[in-house]
Design brief:
By secondary structure, the chain is an all-alpha fold. It has helices at 2-18, 29-32, 46-54, 64-77, 92-100, 108-126, 135-146, 158-174, 186-191, 202-206, 219-227.
């Protein structure tokens, strides 16, 4: 179990770092989202995202049952470990819930049907919904989805559902905190990304080491600095 979690975490961290951390490819997910997924309303502010976390990290779209399933799924996709934050630590549930009520509102039915099919498969296979399975069985279920071996899925397909939740987990882990995830810069600290710094020296750009000279800066803080 521990080896499985370590391998999954290492793969996703490597994917995030290799996707262009400094360029913000993985860390400004809404700005990079396909046109059909962009919202006309503004993203959540840090204050709104924080208030949402205090309400349990859901409620904008997800109900209690669905949020428990998504939270459990996210933690298996990006499992935490001592000194290494996982999806729960980074507030990924909060990110997904806010996104589904705004920028990803067109995916609401996708999530509803996918979560229903997921629990139907888990009840048939393991006699319990996904959120109530132990981590080992949850990993088995996720592997079945990824490999196209799970039943009870029509639309979305099992693999489309898995790929979407994995993508949204990555976004919530590494996008700017202004969107409701990456709580306390957990994802950025994990990969050594400094955030929306106003300027980098030539030495900074050439360095292969994590940038640690100044505090991590998010979009909200950068906007305040520019106004000041």
């Amino acid at each position: 179990m521990r080896k499985h979690d370590d391998a999954r975490r290492a793969f996703l961290i490597g994917a995030a770092a290799g996707a262009g951390a400094a360029a913000g490819v993985a860390f400004d997910a809404f700005a990079q989202a396909p046109e059909q997924h962009k919202a006309t309303d503004a993203p959540a502010t840090d204050a709104q995202a924080t208030a949402h976390v205090h309400s349990g990290g859901h409620g904008a779209f997800l109900n209690d049952e669905d949020s428990a399933t998504v939270a459990a799924f996210v933690e298996r996709i990006m499992p935490g470990a001592p000194g290494k934050p996982g999806g729960s630590d980074a507030g990924v549930l909060n990110y997904i819930d806010l996104a589904l009520s705004g920028a990803y509102a067109d995916l609401q039915d996708f999530y509803r049907r996918g979560l229903t099919a997921l629990d139907a498969y888990c009840r048939k296979t393991h006699n319990a919904p996904f959120a109530r399975l132990d981590a080992g069985k949850q990993n088995e279920v996720i592997a079945a989805l990824e490999q196209g071996k799970a039943t009870d899925f029509t639309w979305p397909t099992q693999q489309a559902f898995f790929n979407t939740l994995r993508t949204h987990t990555m976004e919530g882990m590494f996008a700017d905190p202004i969107y409701g995830g990456n709580k306390d810069f957990a994802g950025w600290r994990l990969v050594g990304f400094p955030g929306a710094q106003p300027v980098f020296s030539a030495e900074d750009m050439a360095s292969k080491e994590a940038f640690t000279r100044v505090p991590i800066i998010g979009l909200q803080s950068q906007a305040a600095m520019q106004r000041g």
